[in-house]
# Entry
Amino acid sequence: MKETKSIEDYLEAIYVLSKEKKIVRVKDIAKFLSVKPPSVTGALKKLSSGGYIDHSPYGGVVLKPKGEKIGKETWEKHKLIFALLNGVLGVSKENAFKEACLIEHCISEETKEKIEQFLKKEGL
# Structure
């Protein structure tokens, strides 16, 4: 299964939520991504069959190692881009968060590393 923007968004959401909650549920993911629960349920079936997560109906969602890796990498890119947009360029927090979510899917590892180096030099 190819990692699409949607797959990365779901894995990122599950990753972030799992750092805040003991049990990640469909309603939590739906709220985080601003989608309806049936959309989450459909996505979770695909993620489960792709080996990214474990999920039982009415139970919690747990990332498998490959799902956690993608979720964590996506979240790390998001945080770097957010810091660049908000902390350096002065973009509002709301817009920086939304736009970081869009950009995180299309930057290369090289670009990620360059942003990281720049932010370190700037002390951010």
